[in-house]
## 1
Amino acid sequence: SQELEQSPQSLIVQEGKNLTINCTSSKTLYGLYWYKQKYGEGLIFLMMLQKGGEEKSHEKITAKLDEKKQQSSLHITASQPSHAGIYLCGADLGQGGSEKLVFGKGTKLTVNP
Amino acid sequence: DGGITQSPKYLFRKEGQNVTLSCEQNLNHDAMYWYRQDPGQGLRLIYYSQIVNDFQKGDIAEGYSVSREKKESFPLTVTSAQKNPTAFYLCASSMYPPSGRALAGEQYFGPGTRLTVT
């Protein structure tokens, strides 16, 4: 079974709309990383969350980690076509050393102008 | 500029041939990783290395081999034993041990190599 569940799998929004992507685990998230990927390219690091209840923002993107440290959300305000891509969450689940990350399957975001 | 390079971007091979994918970083990172990405599957860890001359198997190491003779380089060989080698391969690196952190630092990714085996 997938250790990190991302939802939705895909999302189509009109430019200017707000949206939220979720990343959920049945295990404690010791560290949660959000990445963005353009199709056929590498991943770009967005943000890292570590503490329960933590929230970080960069431009129009806000990421939160819940108090129980089992769910994270990525919220985009007033979406733009430049936000389109695949968003992936990666997590340190405390497995065999802190250097390993487990990734969700990704959420494909399309922003229509 | 510091970063991770992967070459080539596209690679085509005949079934039964071994092929080596290149990954080089000039970020002075200790740890390096190889992932495989398939449609709808997310990223799966193949191998990772924390220091020179040492590496560990990830979740899907069968049919792959790596070496870490230099800190900057972590090549991946896809052998003929890999039953389904066609995929998008991503290399990443990070600080290890993470400076000032109790957790793994963020991983920096290369642009990827798309391998097609026919």
## 2
Amino acid sequence: GQQLNQSPQSMFIQEGEDVSMNCTSSSIFNTWLWYKQDPGEGPVLLIALYKAGELTSNGRLTAQFGITRKDSFLNISASIPSDVGIYFCAGQVGFGNEKLTFGTGTRLTIIP
Amino acid sequence: DVKVTQSSRYLVKRTGEKVFLECVQDMDHENMFWYRQDPGLGLRLIYFSYDVKMKEKGDIPEGYSVSREKKERFSLILESASTNQTSMYLCASSHRGGTNEKLFFGSGTQLSVL
């Protein structure tokens, strides 16, 4: 099956810095989702995007649905220690019961 | 609080053993999924089910089977475990319908096959 490529694979930042990561696909998706996995837990949905060009925020997190529908971006402003974890993008070609395709993940580490 | 519960957090098995990974959800969700998570590869779908007794292959079903006898329970079976099946296994569930494919995940089972 197809996979989504996430970049970067890992990030080491200092508390207070902004973070940017992206997800690219060779094919079009009609839904983009961003998940976060805390250490020792399963992923949890952060943001869902349904329309090309859409920009959606959830607190300090902002995600965008790329206009080509082949990419998506996630930004985190003013990072804090609890932002540590693995961030996954996921795409869905159709709607409803259509299965998701997950990205390779971006591991975020905050240096004290 | 809604929950997806995986029966074991850590499992160590020997090559050739039959392994059962159990998952139970209390949200009355129709859809249930099994993923494996490997560093650098992200989450890959093994099997999924949209209803009791239904199952569909995901992207990497080889070496696995599943069972869904009750709506709330979805089991992943490794018929003869091999070392390349050492991985983190994540179960997830979701409600059917709408455009919002929100998945609720369990905490995962880290399986080591020796």
## 3
Amino acid sequence: NAGVTQTPKFQVLKTGQSMTLQCAQDMNHEYMSWYRQDPGMGLRLIHYSVGAGITDQGEVPNGYNVSRSTTEDFPLRLLSAAPSQTSVYFCASRADIQAPNEKLFFGSGTQLSVL
Amino acid sequence: AQSVTQLGSHVSVSEGALVLLRCNYSSSVPPYLFWYVQYPNQGLQLLLKYTSAATLVKGINGFEAEFKKSETSFHLTKPSAHMSDAAEYFCAVTSPIRGSARQLTFGSGTQLTVLP
């Protein structure tokens, strides 16, 4: 059981480039989410999904797109990277979309630098 | 909307000393509260959670936290620090209303250093 898998672990982009951060989970979790972690700001929610075909915005969605075509995968797309998107990105999932007391399972993160 | 404030971005303790990491919450209803830990170059792991049962919650690795409604606090403690406790700790809050908890709101984190 691999849990939540994120790729790549590290990425360097130039301003204006596009890329996709991959996230896959093998736990059949309905809820998946993307967070960014910045020093002194904790983790902030970018987008989340409560099932295949259903996505919604979190606290900081601008500059990011998501889609959920399968239960397993939840990729995060940067269409035109900006230096302000330099951050560590975490994907997280949980089984029950309705249960607020369930824990999140986190991937190991993607460290992104935009030059 | 819920929020949490973690007092002290960096805390240093000696090995064997008491660990106290502070978290205060703001919420219009009694929330659900969590502590997550992040070891270097890893994702976050759940340490413990408060979900309106016992106010004193015990977690993994000897940590515990007490929910105090009168003080709107959920401080994390451990009686005796170990070198392996060095990590970043995040307090988080969400609404207890089933179906409305679409997101978990995290605090800014506290980096714990354990000195030999």
